[in-house]
Amino acid sequence: MNAAWESVVAGLPFLLVHLAVTTALLIGGVAIYVTAAPFRELKLIRQGNIAAAIVLAGQTLALAIPLAVMMAQSANVPDIILWGVVAIIVQFIAVVAAKLSIPNLRAAIGRGEIGPALVLVTAQLAAALLNAAALSG
Fold first, then answer.
1. How far apart are CA 95 and CA 115, in angstroms?
2. What is the value of pTM for the model shown?
3. What is the spatial distance between Cα 90 and Cα 111, in angstroms, rounded to a whole number?
4. pLDDT tens digits, one per residue of 102-121
5. Which of 52, 29, 57, 30 is nearest to 42 (CA)?
6. Are the CB atoms for 124 and 58 separated by under 8 Å?
7. Neighbours of 53 (CB within 10 A)
8. What is the mean pLDDT of each run of 10 residues along the chain (137 residues)?
9. What is the DSSP string of 31-93?
């Protein structure tokens, strides 16, 4: 039991730093997304728009998936930062491509249409899974 406890005590600082850096990347990625989105999800969510909430929730998960895999694969903080930024960029490219492929998406989300929101979230999550697989080598 003593060796196990020593292992936890020794590894805990690394875990906390890696978790904090990855969480900061996630928060930063979501903040960039919210700022750059063609529609203002937070405003729409405050107005009760469920479609906007679905899209923002999907984007948050879609960023978290590759970041989680990247953190698991990285050995140090510079690695986490470098590959985390790459993961976010790749995810944003995938989201832009998905949004361009859904006609009138902005208007549909603005009207609270769930169907287009679910299609976008599915594309976001599919891209996230592929992004995560690519990051894991």
1. 17
2. 0.87
3. 29
4. 888 889 999 999 999 999 99
5. 52
6. yes
7. 16
8. 80 90 96 84 93 95 94 90 90 85 87 94 93 86
9. HHHHHH-SS-HHHHHHTT-HHHHHHHHHHHHHHHHHHHHHHHH--SHHHHHHHHHHHHHHHHH
Cβ contact 77:21 at 8 Å: yes
At 1 the pLDDT is: 64
Token output for 57:
């929730």
Q: State how far the Cα of 105 lies from the Cα of 33, in Å rounded to an integer.
A: 16
pLDDT the model gives residue 40: 82
At residue 66, the pLDDT reads 93
C-alpha 72/C-alpha 44 separation (Å) is: 35
Q: Tell me, what's the pLDDT at 85?
A: 93
Cα 85 to Cα 132: distance, rounded to the nearest angstrom: 13
- Comparing CA positions, the residue from 135, 126, 133 lying closest to residue 83 is 135
CA-closest candidate to residue 59, choices 109, 133, 111: 109
3-state helix, strand, coil in the chain (%, to 5): 85, 0, 15
